[in-house]
Structure formats: C-alpha cells, structure tokens
Amino acid sequence: MAGDDLVHLKNYEAEDGERVALVWWRNPETLEKWRNDPEHQDAQQLGRDKWYEFFELSVAEVVRTSSSVGPEKYPAP
C-alpha cells in the first residue's frame, strides 16, 4: 500500500451509507507518488468498474491545526 508515506487514515460512514475518508500524507511528493503508483491506479479502475457509481475526490492542504489535546494525540506530517 502506501508504506511509510501515509501518515494517518480515518474513515467515516453516515447513516445513509455515504462514506468519507481523510488521508494525511507526509508531503505533496509522497501524495504524487501514490497517485502515480500502477497498483493504486489498477485499484482505482476496479473501484470505478465494480463498486462506485459516483465518487468525488478533494485534495486540500492543512493551513492550521488546533486541538484540545497535545500534538502527540493527532496526526502530524
């Protein structure tokens, strides 16, 4: 899979079945490496062909993180 490049992954599912995954990557280069990985591209195609009628992907950059706990309790690149 993503090896050490993937920092953290969280999945959520709503009562209506809608799902969202939040993925933290170490840096933009590791995200690009994953995006271009042939095994990942094959898995994407399988998902489009077999499981997903619709999907949406948004890539965002975290500008700031605030928490009521210390940084050791949440993912950081």
Order of helices and strands: EEHH
The biggest beta sheet, please?
2 strands, antiparallel
How many β-strand runs? 2
Structural class determined from secondary elements: alpha+beta
The Cα radius of gyration reads 15 Å
Shape: globular
Strand order of the largest sheet: 1-2
Overview of this protein structure:
With 77 residues, the chain is of the alpha+beta class. 29% of the residues lie in helices and 19% in strands. The protein is built from 2 helices and 2 strands; from the N terminus they run ββαα. It has helices at residues 28-35, 38-51, and strands at residues 6-13, 19-25. The protein starts with 5 loop residues before the first strand and ends in a 26-residue tail after the last helix.
Summarize the structure.
This protein has 77 residues and is of the alpha+beta class.
Which key phrases capture this entry?
two-stranded antiparallel sheet, 77 residues, globular, alpha+beta
List the helices and strands and how they pair.
Layout: E1 6-13, E2 19-25, H1 28-35, H2 38-51
Antiparallel strand pairs: 1-2
